[in-house]
UniProtKB/TrEMBL annotation:
The name this protein goes by in its record: Flavin reductase like domain-containing protein
Keywords: Flavoprotein, FMN
Cofactor: FMN
SMART domains: Flavin_Reduct (SM00903)
Amino acid sequence: MQIDPKKQQKQDNYKLLIGSVLPRPIAFVTTMGDADVVNAAPFSFFSVVSTDPPMLSVTVNRKPGGVRKDTARNIAATKEYVIQVVDSDTVEKVNQCSTDFPPETSEAEVVGFDLLPSQKVKVPRIAQCKIQMECRLHQILPMGGREEEPNADLIIGEVVWFHIRDDLYDQGRIDTVKLDPVGRLAGVTYGKLGEMFSHPRLGYEEWQKQYGSQS
């Protein structure tokens, strides 16, 4: 099958992307809106950008007409937010937060999450999440669409504080099994950890000894 993305609709390309790029980690983002309303929403276009300083990217698609979603609008206004990692214990309530609630409604509080104060930013974090990363905005880049009507906002932020549940942390590393992260697949499907295996990164001489004779 050969497909030219320019010859099909945006939604068709979206389906191909989310069915190919997976599993995708989920950024559960809290922001502060008008009257200090805490907005909470999940996004699966999420990745690491840099380690020095630690930086993360989240892509927030825009609404019809190029209108920014509450998350992107709040971050642009306050320059602060918190990214939570989604796990099997929180995924049901996180999914509820994807409902298009009115801007004056705090999704986190409506679905039953508890809020905790952050250390470096004004935006609260979600108590039930095992990992919370306080972020300050580095840059927002309008992406795709047209200049007057972008398709999405690429939000890049610096992590200024990590909150990690004590039992996950071991000598600077995160226990993946205890974290029990959940990722997005295609459509409305989610996925958990399956079989885990390791492949060490080899030096060139090691590679030659192990695989060179096979080439």
